[in-house]
Write a structure and sequence with these properties.
alpha+beta, Ribosomal Protein S5, domain 2, Alpha-Beta Plaits, 2 domains, six-stranded mixed beta sheet, four-stranded antiparallel beta sheet, 10 helices
Length: 290
C-alpha cells in the first residue's frame, strides 16, 4: 500500500468548563466532546523523495510545518527515521478557525494514516501521546466519538452514544482568537459553570432533552459580548425549534441540536437567508467502529 484516504471529523463541545489556570498559561478544562459527520478529506501518498509535501484546496492555508497535518507527518518521519517521504492532499470542508478542531482533526488523521502506511505498529494510545505534542484536541480527534475530556483536554473518558439527532452548524463571518478568549476569561464567583456531571448522567440515561438543558460553555462569557452575531445565531436556532444551541469551543461556530427534521430544515433556510451565517451545515453525530 502506497496510498491511503481518510476522513478527518469535526467536533463540537456539548459542554465546556474551565476550572482553573496553570502557571504555564494552560487552563484546566472539563468538556464533553462529540465528533460529527462534517469532515475534511485527506489523501496520503508515499513518495520516493524524502520529506513532507502538501497541497490544499484553500489557498490561504499554509502547506509547510505551520500546518498541523504536515507537522504530524514530520514528527513520525523524524522519530522513525523513515527514508521515504509523504505527499499530503487536504480537501478542507470543516470551517477554519471555528472552534471545531479542524486542524487538530487533520493532524490526527495524518498520524493514523502514517501509522498504517509505514507499518509503524503504534497503538491508539501511543498515537494519542504523539498527538498531544501537536495540540490538546488531537488525542480526542484520534479517539473520536464522544468523551469527557479533562486536564488540558488530553485525559479522555469515552461516554455512551447520545440518542439520534440532527445537528445544525453555523459559522458567522467573524474571526475569534482562542488565545484572546482564554486570556480574557474571568474565573470568579460570577461565572456560571455548566453541570457537566449532570449532563453525563443524562447521556448515560439516553435523555437528549436533559442533556441539552444542562449544556453550557463558559467561553461564551467572553466571545458573545465581543460578537453579538454568535448570540443571535444561538437565539435563532432555539426559536426555530432546537432543543439546545451553543457556541462550540472558543467560537465563533454555533450548533443547534434538533429532534425534528422539518424544524431543522426550516431553521437552516432562515440562516441561509439571513446575514448572520457565512457557512451552514446539517449533520449528525459520528461514532467510529470499534
Amino acid at each position: 500500500m502506497r496510498q491511503i484516504n481518510l476522513k478527518a471529523m469535526a467536533k463540537i463541545n456539548l459542554s465546556l468548563d474551565v476550572t482553573g489556570e496553570r502557571e504555564n498559561g494552560y487552563h484546566d478544562l472539563r468538556m464533553v466532546m462529540q465528533s460529527i459527520r462534517l469532515y475534511d478529506r485527506i489523501s496520503l501518498n508515499i513518495t520516493r523523495s524524502p520529506g513532507v509535501k502538501m497541497e490544499t484546496n484553500l489557498g490561504f492555508l499554509p502547506v509547510d510545518a505551520n500546518n498541523l497535518a504536515a507537522k504530524a507527518a514530520r514528527i513520525l518521519i523524524d522519530e522513525f527515521q523513515i527514508p521515504e517521504g509523504v505527499f499530503i492532499s487536504l480537501e478542507k470542508h470543516i470551517p477554519v478557525a471555528a472552534g471545531m478542531a479542524g486542524g487538530s482533526s487533520d493532524a490526527a488523521a495524518v498520524l493514523v494514516g502514517m501509522n498504517i502506511l509505514f507499518h509503524l505498529g503504534l497503538s491508539q494510545e501511543k498515537l494519542m501521546e504523539r498527538g498531544l505534542k501537536i495540540g490538546a484536541d488531537v488525542p480526542f480527534c484520534i479517539l473520536r466519538g464522544i468523551a469527557l475530556a479533562e486536564g488540558i483536554g488530553e485525559i479522555l473518558t469515552p461516554l455512551p452514544h447520545i440518542p439520534d439527532c440532527l445537528i445544525l452548524v453555523a459559522k458567522p463571518e467573524v474571526h475569534v482568537s482562542t488565545k484572546y478568549v482564554y486570556s480574557h476569561l474571568v474565573l470568579d464567583e460570577k461565572l456560571k459553570h455548566p453541570d457537566i456531571d449532570g449532563q453525563i448522567q443524562a447521556i448515560r440515561e439516553g435523555n437528549l432533552r436533559e442533556m441539552c438543558r444542562l449544556q453550557g460553555n463558559v467561553l461564551e462569557s467572553v466571545t458573545v459580548p465581543m460578537h453579538p452575531e454568535i448570540g443571535a445565531l444561538r437565539d435563532l436556532m432555539l426559536e426555530g425549534g432546537a432543543i439546545g444551541a451553543m457556541m462550540s469551543g472558543s467560537g465563533p461556530t454555533v450548533f443547534g441540536i434538533f429532534d425534528d427534521e422539518k424544524a431543522v430544515r426550516r431553521t437552516r433556510e432562515k440562516l441561509i437567508a439571513s446575514p448572520l451565517a457565512r457557512q451552514t451545515y446539517l449533520t449528525t453525530p459520528y461514532y467510529p467502529e470499534r
